[in-house]
Amino acid sequence: xxxxxxxxxxxxxxxxxxxxxxxxxxxxxxLTAIERVVNNLKPSKYINNIVIVTAKGKENDPIADIAxxxxxxYFRGDEVNVVQRFIGAAKKFNTDIVARVTGDxxxxxxxxxxxxxxxxxxxxxxxxxxxxxSVPIGTFSEIINFSALQKLTDIDVDLSYGEYMTxxxxxxxxYFSINILPxx
Length: 184
What we know:
Strand order of the largest sheet: 5-4-1-6-8-7-9
Order of helices and strands: EEEHEHEHEHEEHHE
Distance between the termini: 22 Å
Radius of gyration: 15 Å
Structural class: alpha/beta
Shape: globular
């Protein structure tokens, strides 16, 4: 762990939702859900940058507007291919390691995120996640090396389910070194 990595939290978010459109901008006691996500990640001792990663479509302008208004870094990329969106954001912000967070999880825990990042750095793997059934959905992130995101585009995988991109890592251990951690 002697190398210094540029670690960024990428908050994956779009306005489109079948169940609750615009949920990332829903007001929760005076702040939008996306603002709560950002605020909950700020105390992390490993994250150097927090970036809202959204799609280019006009319907996502309100997300970019709130990022600009609040001084939050953001990146707009491909509407469907989330992997390419993340790669573009990683290149723009010179990111080595990504903590993937979804924008509709205002209860994200920086403590769990730091636990995952710390173990990711120690284990030197491509992807670190948590035992999904052991913590409430929306409280954890997933940690991915930028090089693993690039590798994902080089293998023969259907990326049409990019919204759930970390399943590609969890379900392809023949291509990626993965580290799934228990909750302590």
